[in-house]
Amino acid sequence: MKKWPLKYQSAKIPKNGEPGSFWEDRGDRHHCGVDLYAPESSEVVSIEDGEVVEVEEMTSPEIVPHWNTTFHIIVRNDSGMFCKYGEVSENLVNKGDIIISGQLIGYVGKVLNQEKIDHSSPAYIQNLKARHPSMLHLELWKNNPITVHRQYLGGNWFAEEKPENLVDPTEYLRSIQDKM
Ligand SMILES: [Zn+2]
Q1: 179 vs 158, more confident
Q2: Is residue 81 part of a domain?
Q3: Distance 139 CA to ligand 1 centre (A)
């Protein structure tokens, strides 16, 4: 039984083209996942049974000044795909852990440091400044999820062409939400 990834159930799945939607055009980059806007510290749970294959830092002020430090957790789901739970503040699992659907794995982080966002920040970031500084960034990969690549940074892809193993998670998430 798949579980909605947040205990905060009113998070909305952005529709195609909306802020935070999959492959949203952000000017010089495209969005690799969907953003589920949720209050900071909302509980993040695993959608499926699976194995934690990676836990790493995702953002930090050393990389981009308007970022706070957050982490990503990649789970190889038993159904075969890889889920990347991004922009979490604290991870409660480690690489190699076997987990079950609905298991608490972390908390939503506040990825954006509003004090550091100014006119030089990308437009989509300025739009999020007051409204949505915290979110779960969720990616879905068929195989070989990418976290380190010259065209990948902070959940965005700096090219027009989409990586072939990256999947749009919108329908996957909708199918879970329908069953809630
Ligand atoms: Zn995102």
Answers
A1: 158
A2: yes
A3: 8
Indicate the number of domains in the chain: 1
Is residue 11 one of the residues assigned to a domain?
no
**Measured in angstroms, how far is the CA atom of residue 122 from the centroid of ligand 1?**
14
Q: What is the pLDDT of residue 177?
A: 85
Whether 3 maps to a domain, the answer reads: no
pLDDT in tens, 42-100: 999 999 999 999 999 999 999 999 999 999 999 999 999 999 999 999 889 999 999 99
Q: In this structure, what CATH number is given to the domain that contains residue 61?
A: 2.70.70.10
* Cα gap 134→39, rounded to integer Å: 6
Specify if 9 maps to a domain: no
Instruction: Determine the Cα–Cα distance for residues 47 and 168; give it in Å rounded to an integer.
Output: 16
80 CA from centroid of ligand 1 (Å): 22
Q: Residue 70 belongs to what domain range? A: 30-178
For residue 81, the 8-state DSSP code is -
- Measuring CA to CA, how many Å separate 156 from each of 25, 27, 52, 65, 150? 10, 11, 22, 16, 11
Pick the residue with more confidence: 2 or 126? 2
Whole-number Å distance, alpha carbon 113 to ligand 1 midpoint, is 15
pLDDT score, position 88: 97
Q: Report every protein residue that has its C-beta within 5 angstroms of ion ligand 1.
A: 35, 137, 155
